């Protein structure tokens, strides 16, 4: 038996990565969603740009740290509010994970291709991972937009502001009515920038580490190899993606005028500059801890599920 079946020349049907990628994301998402919500709330704390609207950055930060933020949400909004926005998050991951896996495997197998010795160079993996993230996230941007805005609804209520949405479908309908199709893609530029970095960390690291372990160590292509590779990919993805995630969340959540233009930031670059100047460089890593704690088990569950579905379907490993 070959030690690395993934290097076999068996072709994968284009629809399979989409189906298995979407299914692989579903078991992981609800379990880790409270960490995602906590991460988003932390990213909004101390937002210096709010001073331009007469707000106070200090007033926008009622909590400090991951644990106190999560406890504050439970105490002031209720335990179930830790899952506010989970429905669009599931929608997002079905579209996003399916889209990125189809794109990455197509690039790896068809566009770039492996060398004659079945080796896949790191630079190809990096480019493939970034392009896969861009495609997947662009398709999923409307669901991500709704998710971020719904995650902030509880905070708006505490601040005495009116709630924007009655539910997921009302959010989609209202954004579409107010901003048209373009309104559903608000913040897409920083969103795909984040996705490119996260996928460069996730897909590239998993693919590279797994190949290395199977080809250069006694480990075989099994659950141990999948677990070690996924743990590495979760850490690298969090390190690379957190700054862009902070910028993306702030741009998506900022108030807008009647034309749909942001009142706080003109672009992702403007948001980056304001954050660093007003809050310091480390503000770009607000929410890193819950992001990493969420990404690690999510990556583990996703990759183990994805590989298992491929095995049960008779398709060669990733």
Automatic annotation (TrEMBL):
It catalyses: chloride(in) = chloride(out); H(+)(in) = H(+)(out). InterPro entries: MCP_dom_sf, MCP_transmembrane, Mito_Metabolite_Transporter. Gene3D superfamilies: Mitochondrial carrier domain. It is found in: Mitochondrion inner membrane. Pfam families: Mito_carr (PF00153). Keywords: Membrane, Mitochondrion, Mitochondrion inner membrane, Repeat, Transmembrane, Transmembrane helix, Transport. It is a multi-pass membrane protein. Solcar repeats lie at residues 12-110, 120-212, 221-312. GO terms for cellular component: mitochondrial inner membrane. Homotetramer. Facilitates proton transport across the inner mitochondrial membrane and may dissipate excessive proton gradient associated with oxidative and metabolic stress at neuronal synapses. Regulates glutamate-induced proton conductance in astrocytes, shifting the energy metabolism toward aerobic glycolysis and lactate transfer to neurons for ATP synthesis. Can transport chloride ions with lower efficiency. The transport mechanism remains to be elucidated. PANTHER family: MITOCHONDRIAL DICARBOXYLATE CARRIER-RELATED. Belongs to the mitochondrial carrier (TC 2.A.29) family. This is Mitochondrial uncoupling protein 4. The lineage of its organism: Eukaryota, Metazoa, Chordata, Craniata, Vertebrata.
